[in-house]
Design brief:
Largest sheet of chain A: none
Shape of chain A: globular
Order of helices and strands of chain A: HHHHHHHHH
CATH architecture of chain B: Up-down Bundle
Strand content of chain B: under 5%
Largest sheet of chain B: 2 strands, antiparallel
Number of strands of chain B: 2
Number of domains of chain B: 1
CATH architecture of chain A: Up-down Bundle
Distance between the termini of chain A: 38 Å
CATH topology of chain B: Ferritin
Number of domains of chain A: 1
CATH class of chain A: Mainly Alpha
CATH class of chain B: Mainly Alpha
Strand order of the largest sheet of chain B: 1-2
Oligomer: heterodimer
Number of helices of chain B: 13
Number of helices of chain A: 9
Radius of gyration of chain A: 18 Å
CATH topology of chain A: Ferritin
Structural class of chain A: mainly alpha
Number of strands of chain A: 0
CATH superfamily of chain B: Ferritin, core subunit, four-helix bundle
Chain lengths: 256, 308
């Protein structure tokens, strides 16, 4: 019995980690609303943030149903501290200019596209159903980010410079996406979870194609020392969560 | 083909290619632009709570709402473009302060309950103002308003539901809801504009079928609609003189302090400089992005020509 309990716990943790990626990325995108370079982009960024928020909610709801006692989506989003968050550091860092946001979105969506595509075949039917819905959404996010990275990379000298700079800044945070050290091996062996390492080749192949077409140079690999999946984050996450959680925590027990 | 006067007399729609008096065109550009700008500026006070929404469900609802507002801005700029002005010119006019947006957005959102109050009262007032515009004499504006009104009425119900939850929640939540209504009630009444005897544009707009009802008529309609809703919410409206007029079967509100409205319109509201400054900053920060998109499009077109 004990081993079953542990397996259940790690499955919940897996869903929470994927949900945390989506929630934190959504929260950063939301900061752009009413600040985008054009109104169409306010709509698009709002749409992408809403998709990610929806994915986070489904994953939290499922993760919360696996634990004893059960936890709600809001328990998980609002009442965990930063050390309990399992998102990759890529998504939590402060926003920079529009190039940073689009490069980051390109990386995240390329990763999520490959992940959900495979997770849709998970032996866990709930994870499979969530992934099957999400994969269509992130395919659109990936295309949107690609369209912008092409325009910015191959636009004006200024946009090229900014986008190359953004790429250099984001690149060290890419490899964490493919690190599976935090994941119980049994989850992958049983076909519940997708091995993060298996995503590296297709994600990088896609990114290289886009960078090449955008006339951007792939930076040298210089992975940041980071362990977001184990709850060791950058300083930025605490501030993001402070803002996200403060109202809910100011009224313990209240319903909204 | 009918003349402009015949179309108006027959209560038919004027379309972009029809002849129309310059003053009719100018009035519509002013009004549609102001409406579009209001949608875009209106994203800010609500956006102020997006990162702090107290549940994921509420965050999703608010995000979808703010996104709808950006969408409304786009339809309305498109409607204005049918009159021969570009979105860029209109945004320049907004940024330079030559065109206005609804003064209601010059008030701050100070608590989460303000999101409910904006939905219930501000969107509620906007609907009362806008439903008659679905029958406005200018076709593209009328058609844009049909879609806008449908979405606004959804927002209004969401705002009501948010306030209802707060009002029936903890003591602190109820107090938050009451405080928001206390602050937003009078500014909402002022959204209908000055009283009829002081309204500068009204008579001509009525004659042209742009405006169908007077400011005071619409304001009264809003009050009659809203008072029973406040009771259902368990919240009070901050007007000691509010009373039911048996004979006329209508709610009589106390005197509105229009000096405040005029001050806010003149630029002395709590957030005028902040809202416009934010908008101008976003536009300036985005300039290099828009230039990049234009440069990319030129390069692609050149490549296309080289191939052909």
């Amino acid at each position: 019995m004990r081993s079953t309990c542990e397996a259940v716990a790690t499955e919940a943790e897996y869903a929470v980690a994927l949900a945390d990626d989506a929630l934190v990325a959504s929260q950063r995108l939301v900061e752009w609303v009413a600040r985008a370079p054009q109104i169409e982009e306010d709509v698009a960024i709002g749409n992408i943030a809403l998709d990610l928020l929806g994915q986070a909610r489904l994953l939290y709801q499922y993760a919360g149903s696996l634990t004893d006692p059960p936890r709600t989506e809001d328990d998980l989003a609002y009442f965990r501290d930063e050390r309990a968050f399992r998102n990759v550091c890529l998504v939590e860092r402060e926003n920079g200019d529009f190039a940073v946001t689009m490069v980051r979105l390109l990386v995240l969506a390329a990763y999520q596209r490959e992940l959900y595509d495979r997770l849709a075949r998970s032996v866990d039917p709930t994870l499979a159903a969530i992934a099957a819905k999400a994969v269509k959404e992130v395919a659109y996010h990936r295309d949107h980010a690609r369209q912008w990275v092409l325009r910015l990379g191959d636009g004006t000298p200024e946009s090229h410079r900014r986008t190359q700079t953004a790429l250099e800044a984001e690149w060290p945070w890419v490899s964490e996406l493919f690190d599976g050290g935090w994941l119980a091996p049994a989850l992958v062996e049983r076909g519940v979870a997708v091995a993060p390492a298996s995503l590296e080749e297709p994600v990088l192949a896609f990114l290289r194609e886009v960078l090449d077409e955008a006339t951007l140079a792939e930076p040298d690999p210089r992975p940041a020392v980071t362990a977001g999946r184990e709850g060791r984050h950058t300083e930025a996450l605490g501030h993001l969560l402070t803002e996200l959680q403060h109202l809910a925590r100011s009224h313990p027990g209240a319903s909204w | 083909m009918s003349t402009f006067e015949e179309l108006i007399a027959a209560n038919e729609r004027v379309e972009p290619r029809d002849d129309m008096p310059d003053a009719y065109r100018a009035t519509l550009v002013r009004q549609i632009a102001q409406h579009a700008h209001s949608e875009i500026i209106g994203m800010q006070p609500e956006g102020n709570w997006l990162t702090r929404a107290p549940s994921l469900r509420r965050k999703a609802i608010l995000l979808a709402k703010v996104q709808d507002e950006a969408g409304h801005g786009l339809y309305l700029y498109a409607a204005a473009e049918t009159l021969g002005v570009s979105r860029e010119e209109l945004l320049d006019a907004l940024h330079a302060g030559r065109q206005k947006y609804s003064s209601i957005f010059n008030y701050p959102t100070l608590s989460w309950a303000d999101i409910g109050a904006i939905g219930w009262l501000v969107d509620g007032a906007a609907i009362v103002n806008q439903v008659p515009l679905c029958r406005c004499s200018y076709g593209p504006y009328a058609r844009a308003m049909v879609r806008v009104c449908k979405e606004e009425s959804f927002h209004q119900r969401q705002g009501f539901e948010l306030l209802h939850t707060l009002s029936h929640g903890t003591e602190a939540q109820h107090a938050m809801a009451q405080d928001a209504v206390d602050r937003w009630w009078w500014p909402s009444l002022m959204m209908f504009g000055p009283p009829d005897d002081a309204s500068t544009h009204s008579a001509q707009s009525m004659e042209w079928g742009i405006k169908r009802f007077s400011n005071d008529t619409l304001r009264q309609r809003f009050v009659d609609m809203t008072v029973p809703q406040a009771e259902a919410l368990g919240l009070t409206l901050p007007d000691p003189d509010l009373r039911w007029d048996e004979e006329a079967e209508t709610w009589r509100h106390g005197e509105i302090d229009f000096t405040e409205l005029f001050e806010v319109v003149k630029g002395n509201g709590p957030c005028n400089a902040q809202r416009l400054g934010h908008r101008v900053q976003a536009h300036e920060d985005g300039a290099w992005v828009r230039e990049a998109a234009a440069a990319y499009a030129r390069k692609q077109a050149e490549k296309g020509r080289a191939v052909a």
